[in-house]
Amino acid sequence: MKKINMKTLIITSIVCLLPIILGMLVYNELPEQVAIHWGIDNNPNGYFSKPAFVFGMPIMMLALQIFCCVVSDISDKNPEANKKAVTVYKWIIPILTVILYIVTVMIALGSNLDIRKIVMIILGIVFIVSGNYMPKLRADYFMNMKAFWVKNRDEKLVNKASRITGYMLIISGFLCIASILFKPLVSVIVIILSILATILIYFYVFCKSRK
Questions:
Q1: pLDDT, tens digit, 9 for 90 and up, residues 122-145
Q2: Which is nearest to 145 in space by CA: 55, 203, 70, 60?
């Protein structure tokens, strides 16, 4: 079995669980049903019970973080070459967990926050960071993880797709942030276009690999 980076795994796992401390401190002030999902109009349409939110949400994010870290380490054939980029990606889930937990608690306690703008800013930053580091990953990292379902594992093709995806993510990130200046529908359109662009890139790789 390939080596797991236990230091990063343990530290990021602890960060995923840190929000529980905040939840316990304000536990008695939280409503019995905590909103955890909102529509485009900023109205809540999804709830967790108070215990499920305070304890369950960080634990679910912890499970996701462990899964992603282990899969990444097992699949990475060149950990030294990919170290910086992979480390950045491994910190995305823990940081998002802390930020979104704090925002959710603030809203549950009565703060009048525009969740749409907050989410789009966070999403934009994640896209920009991901797009900046994606081209730095070696092609065999993607191919071994089967992120690109290609028949002929062409390193040049995967590198090209990685660069295109990186540029697309950076552009999408800036558009996500800019969309908060307009009506909510603009944010929805930006997200849809970003998803479609990603699908087109995968389709491009798929077609090229069959030639």
A1: 999 999 998 888 777 665 555 454
A2: 70
Q: Do residues 101 and 58 touch, judged by C-beta distance below 8 A?
A: yes
Q: Is 106 found in the same domain as 5?
A: yes
Mean local confidence (pLDDT), 135-164: 61
Q: How far is CA 75 from CA 1, 4, 6, 41, 196, in A?
A: 10, 10, 15, 41, 27
Q: Smallest Cα–Cα separation from 168: which of 138, 202, 197?
A: 197
pLDDT tens track for 105-123:
999 998 988 999 999 999 9
Per the structure block, which two tokens stand in for 102? 């704090």
Spatial separation of the C-alpha atoms in residues 76 and 142, rounded to whole Å: 9
Confidence check: pLDDT of 164 > 90: no
- For residues 23 and 127, membership in a common domain is answered with no
Amino acid at 174: F
Residue 209 has pLDDT above 60, yes or no: no
Enclosing domain of residue 104: 1-113
Residues 126, 187, single domain; the answer is yes
Tell me how crowded residue 202 is: count the other CB atoms within 10 A of its CB. Answer: 15
Contacts of 153 by beta carbon, 8 Å cutoff, 6+ apart: 143, 209
Is residue 25 located within the same domain as residue 105?
yes
What is the structure's pLDDT at 25?
96
Alpha-carbon span 100 to 155, nearest angstrom: 37
